[in-house]
Amino acid sequence: MRTLEWDEPQQALRLIDQRLLPVRLEFLLCRRVDEVSEAIVNMAVRGAPAIGVAAAFGVALAALRSSATDVLDLLADVRRGAESLLAARPTAVNLAWAVQRMMRVAEMPLPTVEKLQLRLLAEAQRMAEEDVLINRRMAEHGAMLIRDGDTILHHCNTGALAAVDWGTALGAIRLAHEQGKRLFVLVDETRPRLQGARLTAWELAQYGIPHALIVDGAAGYFLRRGEVQKVFFGADRVAANGDVANKVGSYMLALAARANDVPVYSVMPTSTIDMSLPDGDLIPIEERDPQEVLGLQLNGDVVTPPGSAARNPAFDVTPHELLTALVTERGVVYPPFVENLRRVFEAG
Ligand code: MRU
Fold it and tell me: Looking at the structure, do residues 307 and 222 belong to the same domain, yes or no?
């Protein structure tokens, strides 16, 4: 089953509504571009590669639902749709990358409205297929780093749900398991949206991979006791020097891993690498509604006293010095990252 796919009879984007998992597995149909933007904002779809491909279908929907009768009016509708998608979430560069790729197709001169609509839908479908192949290749490179008997500490959700299929860090873990390696995964619950507790634990159970949930603050405890051989997480945007923006908490995890000599691997497609940014301080970090933090309930009651404020950065930046390697579909990239990332892009 894919996290998102084109529903041909409905002419709509069908995606797993990740807000409902693991309680219910339900699908959301997005028939218009604003419904795709909304699904990205409210995190019905989330994870860098997944929001990139969802946005590509969003651009196609802007064209398909347009009532324009000439190509220039159609292009204006598509541009408006693209703007709304770009504003949905700022950190994962896959979103902008996918929208820009779609706009390059939209701006190719084409004689009829219908031809342009079909061209855009075909491009979005191509991106969905490519995403699966790329993630599978990343999984192959990542799985080679995993040894039989490893306990891996994992942050957020980076599995099939974060992409069209397979995912990034969790894809590598899943493949290593399928190769017959005996693994154990310590799953950070990942406050405040609980992507680890809700989504990663659900995926690991589907794959039959032994795992245990831990509160985010317990990571240091397990690292210091020598119970963890590797830390794996994904990335939402990587700067040209290898600094990685990923789900908030990744930085603290990498610090604790370094203090205990545990290697840290960040896994991402090359579409997550933003070579235009020299370092991670330039990556825009999304700050979400404080209610996501303040709304926590225990026994049916909100735990926070009324009047307390909250800050809610959704991501943080792990400086490249704390990372052992970056795993991409083109191979494993080791330090020095500036030179080696440049080489990866030059090789194409
Ligand atoms: O806020 P989210 O759930 O979209 O954040 C997702 C992450 O931080 C993932 O680790 C990241 O997208 C990389 S894995 C595909």
Answer: yes
Give the Å distance between the CA of 193 and the centre of ligand 1: 11
pLDDT for 238: 98
Q: What is the domain range of residue 293? A: 139-347
Residue 6 near residue 124 (C-beta atoms within 8 A): yes
**β-bridge mates for residue 333, sequence order:** 326
User: Which of 136, 168, 196 marks a domain boundary?
Assistant: 136
Same domain, 38 and 151: no
76 and 189 part of one domain: no
pLDDT of residue 50: 98
pLDDT in tens, 79-109: 999 999 999 999 999 999 999 999 999 998 7
Domain count, the chain: 2
Nearest Cα residue to 117 out of 156, 86, 71, 167: 71
Cβ of 4 less than 6 Å from ligand 1:
no
Residue 110 has pLDDT above 90, yes or no: no
Q: Check if the beta carbon of residue 57 is closer than 8 Å to that of residue 4.
A: yes
Mean residue pLDDT of the chain comes to 97
Closest Cα to atom 8 of ligand 1: 247
Nearest CA to ligand 1 atom 10: 234
Q: Is 18 in the pocket of ligand 1 (CB under 6 A)?
A: no
Q: How far is the CA of 251 from the centre of ligand 1 (A)?
A: 14
Cα dihedral across residues 219, 45, 177, 206: positive or negative: positive
